[in-house]
């Protein structure tokens, strides 16, 4: 289904680890819609080598950057602009890492140094990316930046742990920087709040399978697939969404506005005698 929605557009996509990654699927869709892409990920992720397959499929260079390192980000934006021969039209921030989550620390017992690192990688990094682009004036007018979030920013999902704090900060940075970048360059900044999705980052959450099943039953349309999330990102990068900015946009099959579903109630009702 190629409509050339992104013909002539140039973008940086962060976070394609393997073919399950939301960023991987988004890179494929953007390419299908006519965009030119630079792929980026942390040096440790690049060593896995998977990203080279994607790079080959879409003819994109891979430029490593630890998203917590300003020098890496500056180099990434410089090299991307040199590659494209001009400014960047869109950026996907598809990055998350919970250190306390990974080390099995309960929310009430978190290690604060790890928490700082979690917030830096998963949320402040969006500020770092926007700041780098801002200082270099690297984004085109009406450019579009999208980061991925989760509804734990608004509601409690106990096992989502410190990542809830990270997502709340990510959404706040989206609004605050979105304001300034909108005024200066008409650049748009939004988060997409995605259904639970089976990826490497997703599966790191305790009890993830139950999480996915519950959300599936609670969502009138069922859980949104990674591929559909990729389509939504294409729309947000395109000129069809020019006046959408500073928003947290739920892409979750209706989960966020459902109080309870018949499927959940049926699962709780004891069988009739
Ligand atoms: P993923 O594991 O494929 O992607 C996470 C990416 O973050 C990886 O490519 C990893 O290398 C990158 N990353 C980690 N530390 C980094 C650093 N210091 N510098 C640069 N990159 C770094 O998993 P997924 O699910 O595709 O995650 C993408 C985004 O979607 C994350 O923000 C995640 O929180 C969000 N999300 C995921 C959901 C899910 O259920 N999988 C649901 C809602 C949002």
TrEMBL record:
Query: Into which EC class is this enzyme placed?
Result: oxidoreductase
Pfam family for this entry, one: adh_short_C2
So, what pathway does this thing act in? Lipid metabolism; fatty acid biosynthesis
Q: Which CDD domains match?
A: ENR_SDR
* Database matches in SUPFAM superfamilies: NAD(P)-binding Rossmann-fold domains
Reaction(s) catalysed by this chain's protein:
a 2,3-saturated acyl-[ACP] + NAD(+) = a (2E)-enoyl-[ACP] + NADH + H(+)
Q: What is its EC number?
A: 1.3.1.9
Q: Taxonomically, which superkingdom?
A: Bacteria
Q: Which UniProt keywords apply?
A: Fatty acid biosynthesis, Fatty acid metabolism, Lipid biosynthesis, Lipid metabolism, NAD, Oxidoreductase
Q: Which family does it belong to?
A: Belongs to the short-chain dehydrogenases/reductases (SDR) family. FabI subfamily.
Protein name, entry field:
Enoyl-[acyl-carrier-protein] reductase [NADH]
Q: Which organism is it from?
A: Flaviaesturariibacter amylovorans
Q: What is the lineage of its organism?
A: Bacteria, Pseudomonadati, Bacteroidota, Chitinophagia, Chitinophagales
